Amino acid sequence: MVETPEELRWTAHPFRERRGAAILALAVLAGITVASYWASGGQAWGFLAAPVLLVSLNRFFMPTRYEMDQAGITARYPFKTCRREWQDVERWAVDAHGAILLPKTSGPKRPQRDRGMQILFGTQRTEVLDRLRFHLDGKSRP
């Protein structure tokens, strides 16, 4: 009999983990802020651009906490919490930085990728992938 893996908790913080992308993101953020300030004639729009971009890119700039257990996975993002049960996952895919869990096709008429749950590996790539393979064995990978 295969032993069930223990619960896994980890934090992913792309801003800290990916230095090159972090420097580029800050440069783009500063450039857009300066361009907005200049284009608006020195108005407050330039100062509004930076916080709007920071909030819209919160998953990159702020840490996300994950908990994986026997029933599913929970992601605690800066402004919301999402839960996906293993039984609700139909397909999943892996890339360089994480995975996406795609739900069964029932539900609202919108693309599956819009309803998928993105998981970032952080520094726990091997442990997370091992558990995903255990829990999602037999599910298709697009």
Distance between the termini: 29 Å
Mean pLDDT rating: 85
Order of strands across the main sheet: 1-2-3-4
Low-pLDDT residue spans: none
What's the topology here?
Layout (H helix, E strand, L loop, with lengths): L7 E5 L1 H4 L1 H21 L5 H12 L1 H4 L2 E5 L3 E5 L4 E5 L3 E6 L3 E6 L8 H4 L1 E4 L4 H12 L6
Antiparallel strand pairs: 1-2, 2-3, 3-4, 5-6, 6-7
Helix pairs in contact: 2-3
Question: Explain this structure to me?
Answer:
With 142 residues, the protein is of the alpha+beta class. The chain folds into 2 domains: 8-13 and 62-136, PH-domain like; 14-59. It has 6 helices and 7 strands, in the order βααααβββββαβα. It has helices at 14-17, 19-39, 45-56, 58-61, 112-115, 125-136, and strands at 8-12, 64-68, 72-76, 81-85, 89-94, 98-103, 117-120. The strands form 2 sheets. The protein has a 4-stranded antiparallel beta sheet with strand order 1-2-3-4, with helices on one face. The two termini are 29 Å apart. The mean pLDDT is 85.
What's the quick description here?
Helices cover 40% and strands 25% of the residues. It has 142 residues and is an alpha+beta fold.
